[in-house]
Amino acid sequence: RPTAKLLRQLARGGQVICITHLATVAVYGDDHWRARKEVRHGRTLLAVDRLVDAARTDEVARLLGGEETAEADVDAAGRAYARDLLREAREEFASGGLQGDLGDGG
Predict the structure, then answer these.
(1) Do the strands 32-40 and 43-51 form a parallel or antiparallel pair, or are they unpaired?
(2) Closest to 71 measured CA to CA, from 87, 60, 84
(3) Would you say the C-alpha torsion 59, 7, 50, 41 has a positive or negative sign?
(4) What is the domain partition of the chain in residue ranges?
(5) CA neighbor of 28 nearest in space, from 78, 82, 90
(6) CA 22 to CA 45: how far, in whole Å?
(7) Which of 12, 22, 35, 87 has its CA 20 to 30 A from that of 62?
């Protein structure tokens, strides 16, 4: 939460792009994108997809399972926990809970 709070405050003055493998940071973003490496015809490419709704929940659940977790291995419990984290982040934004001063100890 302290990291999310700092990023949120930085975003007040401009755009912030944060690349993270931490689900607990990712849930606080306004937008969620997934970057992945693909090899096509012997060339390495970067593919970037915007994630919304169920895709965002699935990606947060995958992050919770660890970097090596395949999408197919994400279970219902992981998705439920991801939904809870996303809901809590939305509620914190709505209540102004991430608007405090950086010096308040997080």
Answers:
(1) antiparallel
(2) 60
(3) negative
(4) 2-104
(5) 90
(6) 24
(7) 12
